[in-house]
Amino acid sequence: MSDYQATLERLYARIPSGRKLGLERVQAVCDHFGNPERSFEAIHVAGTNGKGTVCAFLTSMLFHSGRKVGMYTSPHLNRFAERIAINGEPISDEALGPLLNQVMDAGPDLTFFEVATVAAFLAFREANVEIAVLEVGLGGRLDATNVIPSPKAVAITRISFDHMSELGETLSQIAREKAGIIKPGSRVVLGKLHPDARAVVEARIAEVGAELLELGSPEPFTGARLAYPRTAMIGTNLAVASTIGRALNLAPEDMARGIEATLWPGRNELLHRNGQDLTLLDCGHNPDGMVALSHSLDPGTLGDISSRKEIALVFGAIAGKNYRAMLRRLENVAGHRIYVAPPISKGLDPHLMTQILPGEVAASVPKALELARAKVGSKGLVVVTGSIFLVGAARASLLDLPTDPAVDL
Questions:
Q1: What is the pLDDT of residues 344-368, one digit of tens each?
Q2: Alpha carbon 164 to its chain's center
Q3: Rg of the chain over all Cα atoms, to the nearest angstrom
Q4: pTM of this prediction?
């Protein structure tokens, strides 16, 4: 076993402690290390859906504007190191291993996510990162990432029902938690929020003296023709990112180059072999995400795919997710359904899905992909969704990628 694998095992041993919201533990360890969270400017991104996409767009725009930029996101799709990226590249195992051990030595009570967060701050300081794009892990107010000082900009992408046991039962309660990342002096950009949620967020902006920016065009400049391959990512998520880019005075041409170069695997990602065997991977994991996915599967948006009989859905979910509502949102998009458990301890029995909508059950992710492809042939479309952990496993299977164990933290 390599030193890095031993370090991951040490980190993964903290998984049973789960999530512990609160800033005291993280702040104490950051203080111990001389406050690495203060060594860079930050853009802080929260939201039920779309926050990772916004982070990816912003990171690419900043990089193409000549800034040294860090990005911290979660959970990972295939490898843990994906969570901490510098100039768009995941941190190396050689650099990450010692940082994780330092943090675990200094913070024996930190959770899995808290260790990862502090390690990201240390990595960004060591790399002399100028600005970091930070994705909230859960909620916002008490999320480990919220120990940072007032960020240059804050984005709240969407607010819908998810993680209600931790964040609240109403949109107003959930919005209050997410709005907790807004600090004095920050410029704030909001996606399309329900009026109840927006009222709470605007109240927070007024309370702390932040500035609300009007959501602008997704185009970096009027008439921009962007060679971006997946139109489903264009729209509100890109509008949020572009509005922040303009607020940071990024050159429109640099923003355009950054948008065109953005890679965000597993998020409305279309894979193919020789123009056939199309597979769409989308990490939608709640009903709101399924609505967005269903729109991207409208007839005519995917080349020659014009009939639901040419689409096979591979779906799986984890405990705590509203899989019933998710499936209902996708009821009319596919002519075939294959259900499979995501390869994680919280993966739900796929037979539960058949009680909502008819479909076949597969024993493994590779088998599910095989069954789905057989349904639609080489010219049809296989859509994999319902859980990021299912999508990660499918992507690894299709592309023969190395993986670290999935973690719902």
A1: 999 999 999 999 999 999 999 999 9
A2: 18
A3: 21
A4: 0.92
